[in-house]
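Our example pasted here:


***
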Amino acid sequence: MNDIKKIACPHCNSRKVRYLDANMFKCLSCETSFYVNTNQTTINHKHTYTNYKNNPFSKLTSKRALYFITGFVVLALTLFIIVPFLTGKNSYSSGQRISENVQIKDYIFNVESSAAFIDQSKNLKIFIIGTVRPTNHNNNKFKDKIYWAVYDAVKGTYEQIEPLDITNTKEISFNGIECFRFDDGNIYTVVGKTMLYRYDTAAKNIRYLNDEIITDVDGLQSGIASIDDTSNAYAAFEIKTNSGKRIMYFPASKVYSNNHFTYSLKDHSYPNDKPTVFFFQTRNEPSYLVKYNALYSMGYPICFNPHILTVFDENENFKSASFDNHWVKSSRMIDMEVLNTDSKLYQLKVLDYRDGIVALGVKTRNVSSEKYKIQWLDYNGNLLWSVTGQDSFLYDFSGVVNKNIGLLYGNGEHYFLYSNGGKLLKKLELDELSFDLD
């Protein structure tokens, strides 16, 4: 992922650009042309071409052109009058982008990072962070300021939009911003690889954590040099001190250790420990969904993506799966079972699980370009529905489930909302969701 450079206009910061030729691009918003050095990087852009030589309109005679234009005007007027009565003002077709029927407001996000989450009332929401720019690209008084926001995917509205209290934006532009949803349900954001923030989904506020971490952790008195690695696998951050020491820190419980794996292999008991159901996939192909029970206390050290060994017979038929011995302890496993042994699935991703529902992304072939199928299963592995999605790449735990509403999942800049019956309700392009700041 990190080798993909997203092209933005140097004049207005818009990412809606068109490739011209010889590394030249043109901004579709302000029409600025600019050069991009593509050495040693991969440029992520869409090619847009207009072939004037083959343009059918160039062959029209003036008389035919007059007939064509007259017919087009009549058709457009007819559609303008009839369509609103047929569709209704607020209706939308399945899978339509949400921005099509929303009035364009003054600002939109240049999205740096985002994460889906579910709030205390089990509403499906998206946490978004980045810079903002005006939709008309004029007089951007919020330039170089970082904002965070919370968007309700079902209601289609922003609930919160606030500035992030930060002054040094140069470090951010170089090292970026990343969001993570940890096991406590909150959103943790690493800014510029040196600053850590937590959005509390219950209190609905954001808090700077660095000072608190330095106070709580004895080994951090020299200060935080970098937050080098982040890990959904452990719901923890690996922090490097100014003296070169590395510490694994669990922000929800404030537990810390010098070596997480060694620490997790020791026997521990934590407050509110109880057997809990988890789901994860085997690493081999075909992929198999594993349901396991483990001792768990929210916010305390545990591994959420254990290494699961898969055994096949001489004909490549599945025989069994088991936890590697080290991961039995680090995941605090009690027992396990494999659910989908009768079906061959590939590149399986667990998007979310809660309230008796497991949401998966699966492929029927081990082909990188194949689109993922989105599936709902119950906790016994029974398939409730399956539909073909629109992405060929997905992340683990990149979605949230509400059994009564549906599934929200995404890949950073776009999200999909499905009903609990498998119907695509919305595609959300985050950089097209406009809002007001004034």
Remarks:
- The chain has three domains: 53-87, 99-267, 274-423.
- The first helix runs from residue 62 to 87.
